[in-house]
């Protein structure tokens, strides 16, 4: 029971990282809009880095490639289908005003956070110190990702308060993942093995199909290069977090 308390406390504290968007509520909308493109770029880089530097390498250690890649492809196709359904649901009338990738990002983030909860639970079950270290490393990559996710929701024309609430509620899936992992600890490795490539496929789809095309729309060469630099920064952050995690 003591380990369950550690798991719930750690995942809840990490979920609070989603509230970092509250600091943007005091910024004027005109000023904030200037930074949205860079937040989109940061999120795209973090998603791609998370998929290729964290999720897929971890999945390859647990599954053979013959099983891993079909799951990634299935996830990619499923996310495409879900986006199509969301697009029809929200945009079957003319003059659709809401970008569906905001909802897609929430769905993908929920899967990612749930997996984070599973990973945290599995490490706490092995050793409390290892669980604390793992929680700290996960928190490091959650902060930049949550900033980017908040920007994605604003770019998708969510109101700032709605974006903050949605981001926080989705972040709480880490808590459910932790609790689920604790009570099914004897199966946690198998569960995580299949969820990792599934989440990776979703991350790749969101970044490559939805976010990066938005970045490409920028006509200014200067802003395009800056946004590309921020995209690379997202990748670098994910790489640094991976390096720290192996220390």
UniProtKB/TrEMBL annotation:
InterPro entries per UniProt: ZIP
Phosphoprotein listed as a keyword: no
Residue ranges crossing the lipid bilayer per the database entry: 6-23, 35-56, 68-86, 164-185, 191-212, 224-244
Compartment list: Membrane
MF-aspect GO terms: metal ion transmembrane transporter activity
Membrane topology, record value: Multi-pass membrane protein
GO cellular component: membrane
UniProt cross-references to Pfam families, sorted A to Z: Zip
Key word Oxidoreductase present: no
Keywords: Membrane, Transmembrane, Transmembrane helix
Protein name in the entry: Zinc/iron permease
Organism: Candidatus Roizmanbacteria bacterium GW2011_GWA2_37_7
């Amino acid at each position: 029971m003591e380990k369950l308390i550690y798991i719930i406390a750690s995942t809840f504290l990490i979920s609070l990282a989603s509230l970092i968007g509250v600091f943007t509520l005091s910024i004027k909308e005109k000023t904030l809009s200037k930074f949205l493109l860079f937040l989109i770029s940061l999120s795209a880089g973090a998603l791609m880095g998370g998929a290729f530097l964290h999720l897929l390498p971890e999945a390859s250690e647990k599954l053979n490639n013959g099983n891993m890649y079909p799951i990634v492809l299935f996830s990619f196709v499923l996310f495409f289908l879900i986006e199509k359904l969301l697009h029809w649901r929200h945009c079957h009338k003319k003059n659709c005003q809401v970008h569906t990738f905001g909802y897609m990002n929430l769905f993908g983030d929920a899967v990612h956070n749930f997996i984070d909860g599973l990973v945290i639970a599995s490490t706490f079950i092995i050793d409390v110190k290892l669980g604390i270290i793992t929680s700290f490393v996960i928190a490091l990559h959650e902060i930049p990702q949550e900033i980017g996710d908040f920007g994605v929701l604003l770019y998708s024309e969510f109101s700032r308060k709605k974006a903050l609430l949605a981001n926080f509620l989705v972040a709480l899936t880490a808590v459910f993942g932790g609790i689920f992992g604790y009570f099914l600890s004897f199966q946690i490795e198998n569960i995580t093995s299949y969820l990792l490539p599934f989440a990776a496929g979703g991350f790749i789809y969101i970044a490559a199909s939805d976010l990066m095309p938005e970045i490409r729309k920028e006509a200014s060469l200067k802003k395009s290069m800056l946004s590309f630099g921020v995209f690379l920064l997202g990748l670098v952050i994910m790489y640094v977090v991976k390096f720290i995690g192996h220390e």
